[in-house]
TrEMBL record:
Gene3D superfamilies: SOS response associated peptidase-like (3.90.1680.10). It is an enzyme of class 3 (hydrolase). Pfam families: SRAP (PF02586). This is Abasic site processing protein. InterPro entries: SRAP, SRAP-like. It comes from Fodinibius sediminis. Keywords: Covalent protein-DNA linkage, DNA damage, DNA-binding, Hydrolase, Lyase, Protease. Belongs to the SOS response-associated peptidase family. PANTHER family: ABASIC SITE PROCESSING PROTEIN HMCES, DC12-RELATED. GO terms for biological process: protein-DNA covalent cross-linking repair; proteolysis. Its EC number is 3.4.-.-.
Length: 224
């Protein structure tokens, strides 16, 4: 699972890389231990316009009783999407990109779980593929929520986990954010695991295991 990630970038960096603009400064606050259920920034296309907004990380089902009902839907595989009609509709019509500096994976042994931080060698932001939905609260408020797509891990990530988030190259941002359904060939190409030659994996402090910790030191490499 990839149930934690990091966001550290300026407003200008996000706006430039994702070709989006917002007057809201709080969409660009740095966090180093983002967990499911958190509000996260996501880029999406709505009414023909590319936008950025705060989404709940955890896709809320259409028949949910409250906003917490999507907690377990923070990540999803293509196979899982294809099992439920409402998720298929999200994939066809409501795709989003989640800006991230990197994500954590844990190598599990009988003795302990060792955390690793995974990023791009370029240190640029990743664009993690997601699907989203808009749930109507009892008060009539539109609540945006999303789930992160995962794929088979590449050879670099595989030793610490069998799956990894889908990362969309910048040249395909517009394709992923399009409002039309993707054909099978295009979808298969986009959700392939990211090239290992462009990524780095570093062991990091076990302090990240505590969800309350949110500090730049969490992503600093430590000796293996």
């Amino acid at each position: 699972m990839s149930d934690r990630f990091v966001f550290q970038a300026t407003k200008e960096e996000v706006e430039h890389q994702f070709k989006v603009h917002s007057e809201r400064e709080d969409y660009f606050e740095s966090h180093f231990n983002i967990t499911p259920g958190s509000l996260i920034s996501a880029v999406y296309r709505e009414e023909g316009q590319r936008k950025i907004n705060n989404f709940i990380w955890g896709l809320i089902p259409p028949d949910a009783e409250n906003e917490r009902s999507g907690a377990e839907n923070y990540e999803v595989t293509l196979g899982e999407i294809q099992e439920e009609e409402w998720k298929i509709e999200c994939l066809e019509k409501r795709r989003c990109l989640i800006p991230a500096s990197g994500f954590y994976k844990w190598k599990t042994t009988k003795k302990k779980n060792t955390p690793f931080y995974i990023r791009l060698l370029s240190n640029q932001l990743m664009a993690l593929a997601g699907i989203y939905t808009v749930w109507k609260s009892s008060s009539g408020r539109d609540v945006y929520s999303c789930s992160m797509l995962t794929t088979e891990a590449n050879a670099l990530v595989q030793p610490v986990g069998e799956r990894m988030p889908v990362i969309i190259d910048r040249e395909y941002h517009s394709t992923w954010l399009g409002e039309d359904a993707l054909d099978e060939r295009t979808l298969d190409r986009l959700i392939q695991s990211y090239p290992m030659s462009q990524m780095a994996v570093n062991r990091v402090s076990e302090e990240v295991n505590d969800k309350e910790n949110d500090d730049p030191q969490l992503i600093q490499p430590i000796p293996k």
